[in-house]
Write a structure and sequence with these properties.
It holds the Pfam family Phosphodiest. This is Type I phosphodiesterase / nucleotide pyrophosphatase. Helix content is about 35%, strand content about 20%. The chain is of the alpha/beta class. A seven-stranded mixed β-sheet has the order 3-19-10-2-9-7-8, sandwiched between helices. Helix 1 packs across helix 2, helix 1 packs parallel to helix 5 and helix 10 packs parallel to helix 12. The longest helix is centred in the middle third of the chain and has 20 residues. The radius of gyration is 22 Å and the shape is globular.
Length: about 450
């Protein structure tokens, strides 16, 4: 096994890799050209800088407009939904292929080469936000993908007498019901839409393909955050390596391969469960299969969208049990680890005043159960500066849960969510730390 190395040692002060850099850096390192996008999206220069820092291309290497590829290698980006670096490290005994990649990356980091095994994801640490950050190279404050769900932007502003109801919410995963067109509403171009081959337009030779469950083709989240590449449907995890190998042999430079089974098992059973371990072992077999079968000179990059924590009955906080938490809250969205609270009001000034009061009451009542509570005006500290689209759907108050606490509202959350053992969305290290494992075969 040969690990990609940068001929120049990684500076000690190099920034920790961010998920939003991964797809752009992988594209440039595979020999593709990335056009610049709008303000707030990853630029070609930023993608090239990440590729150089991570040892994917030599310093001063290729990738921008007008620059030819240097040591370009076809690349498979494996995105594992729900695999935090902390969880991988604790359970690496069950995953020999991943354990070897992790050990190689840790050794390189000790020697001052490569990025090391750790990257960070966006905040909130939830799939809709993170996959769109990966897909567009932009933070949630730019894309507007600020949680699992938001108050439907097609509704009029909340009124003082409104009460939270699930019908008021728009899921940024499914985009079901009356909702905006995901392509029009999330209009930041994706990395896939900005790519071209160095030798000209794609034509019948797409620069990239995506692989994952067949239902993802044309889904709301795909249209919002990952549009622009042909999708290869592969419902069985075990079949996805073969599809990736076929695409590489057809000359596709960049393959995006999605694995969601780990996240599903974590939500349903907890990430410490035997069922989660079963899915980790399946993932490990997929990685080993990829390494055996991809053409020589292929780069594999494995990362994740977020980590996960396990909760229990003692750490479930019900809003409906507290009159103080209910006061002035007209809508509850987001997810149990990163809750969006919307307040009613006659105008912006009244809503801002109510939001400040709600934030203070929640801080006083939750205390150390909350990691951070802030208003929409303060949310840019975590979500990235909020543009008009994001401000239009972000809660007036946001609540990030501490430890393994979750904030629940039985009027909004389904029974399956009320008892869900595996959760994510907040800002703890277990949720924000993700792996970035890079190898060349």
């Amino acid at each position: 096994m040969t690990t990609a190395r940068n001929p120049v040692d990684r500076p000690a002060a190099a920034p920790v890799p961010h998920l939003r850099e991964v797809l752009g850096a992988a594209a440039l390192a595979s020999g593709l050209v990335l056009a610049d996008g709008p303000e707030g999206a990853l630029t070609s220069a930023q993608a090239r800088d990440a590729a150089e820092r991570w040892g994917l291309v030599p310093d001063g290497g290729a990738g921008g407009e007008g620059a030819g590829p240097v040591q370009a290698l076809p690349t498979v980006v494996v995105l594992v939904d729900g695999l935090g670096l902390d969880q991988l490290r604790e359970r690496r005994g069950h995953a020999p292929a991943l354990r070897a990649l992790l050990a190689d990356s840790e050794a390189d980091a000790r020697e001052g080469r490569g990025p090391g095994p750790e990257a960070v994801t966006c905040r909130p640490t939830t799939t809709a936000a993170a996959l769109t950050a990966l897909g567009t190279g932009a933070l949630p404050g730019t894309t507007g993908m600020v949680g699992y769900s938001v108050r439907n932007p097609l509704l009029p502003p909340a009124s003082v007498g409104d009460a939270p109801d699930a019908s008021d919410l728009l899921s940024l995963i499914s985009w079901e019901g009356r909702c905006p067109d995901p392509r029009a509403w999330q209009d930041v171009p994706t990395i896939f839409e900005r790519l071209r081959r160095a030798d000209g337009p794609a034509g019948e030779r797409p620069p990239a393909v995506t692989i994952g469950p067949a239902r993802f083709a044309g889904s709301g989240l795909t249209e919002a955050g990952l549009r622009g590449a042909p999708h290869i449907g592969a419902d069985a995890m075990e079949s996805r390596a073969g599809h990736a190998v076929e695409a590489l042999r057809r000359g596709v430079p960049l393959v995006y391969l999605y694995v969601g089974e780990l996240d599903h098992a974590g939500h349903a059973h907890g990430w410490r469960s035997e069922k989660w371990l079963t899915q980790l072992e399946r993932l490990d077999a997929l990685v080993a299969d990829l390494r055996r079968r991809v053409p020589h000179g292929t780069r594999i990059m494995l990362t994740a969208d977020h980590g996960m924590v396990d909760t229990d009955d003692e750490h479930r906080l019900l809003i409906t049990d507290s009159p103080g938490l209910l006061r002035d809250v007209a809508c509850v969205a987001g997810e149990p680890r990163l809750t969006h609270l919307y307040v009613g009001g006659r105008d912006d000034a009244e809503r801002a005043e109510r939001a400040a009061a709600v934030a203070e009451r929640w801080r006083a009542e939750l205390g150390e159960q909350a990691l951070w509570i802030g208003t929409r005006d303060e949310a840019g500290e975590h979500l990235g500066p909020l543009n008009e689209r994001a401000r239009g759907v972000t809660g007036d108050v946001l609540v990030a849960a501490a430890g393994t606490w979750v904030v629940l509202d039985p009027r909004v959350h389904a029974n399956a969510v009320l008892g869900m053992p595996g959760v994510h969305g907040s800002f703890t290290g277990a949720e924000t730390r993700i792996p970035l494992l890079i190898t060349c075969v």
